[in-house]
Amino acid sequence: MKARDRRAISGVLLLDKPVGWTSNAALQAVKRLYRANKAGHTGSLDPLASGLLPLCLGGATKLAGLLLNADKTYRFTCRLGETTTTGDADGEIVLTRPVSGVDRARVEDALQNFRGVIQQVPPMYSALKRGGQPLYKLARQGLEVEREPREVTVHELRLLRLDDAELECELRCSKGTYVRALAADLGEALGCGAHVAALRRTAVEPYDAARMVTLETLRERATEDCAALDVLLLPPDSAVAQWPAVRVSGDVAFYLRQGQPVLVPRAPTQGWVRLYQDDERFMGLGEILDDGRVAPRRLLF
Description:
The protein has helices at 23-34, 64-68, 104-111, 135-140, 179-189, 215-222, 226-230, 250-257; strands at 11-17, 39-41, 50-57, 72-80, 82-84, 93-96, 116-120, 129-130, 133-134, 150-163, 166-173, 194-204, 207-208, 245-248, 272-277, 281-288, 294-299. The chain is an alpha+beta fold.
């Protein structure tokens, strides 16, 4: 696509990423359909996984990093009795063990150890880098390197279903939590091993699955006009709707755009805030300084 054909749009699209697609491939497909000048995703989903992938277009890309740090919710299915190279169904089975005596009470008891703040060793098949190389590239070469445990927080972990050698759970967790590592550790706790057979992300705070859009829907609308696509975008400030709003006049907005902190009556006394000009236009984000002034941090316009 030529640069002159791209549009300077700004918004957040809640894509329902299909199984088998990388997050970047899905991002590029959406960018082409919207003819967006810029686009970025807010944290990768494995090709095996489906579900909520917030995509930021245009000026909203300046807020993408904030969603990387957001809590996330998943539904995942574990296949018990089989351990794979990757921790999911895409890998080769390396160990098979009998599934015996695994009932609901035993699973519930095991899940207790994976709630709250836990230590988790990142899997070799991950995008973490060692010496500039992603771990998954080393793993594909048959190499395994030592990984330091990382602290993550599991806010909720519920057993939804247990059928023979398969169990389904819902998980709400902090950033950096690896569902494949959690499933593998749960399998070891049950004494039979396990891997992720299916994974779907249902929420990335503050977004949930209610307004997700499929690629098929986007392709259908792209045959109409740009307006049919643009109506599916959420405003950029929806990503930070939980933060307090500070409204300034046009004169004050001018100084903020010059990078200068300003004093705003009745502004919050600390933290980050949403900035609006004349009650309407979302300018971006600011931070309250120790002296009470509002400093511009990430301005969109």
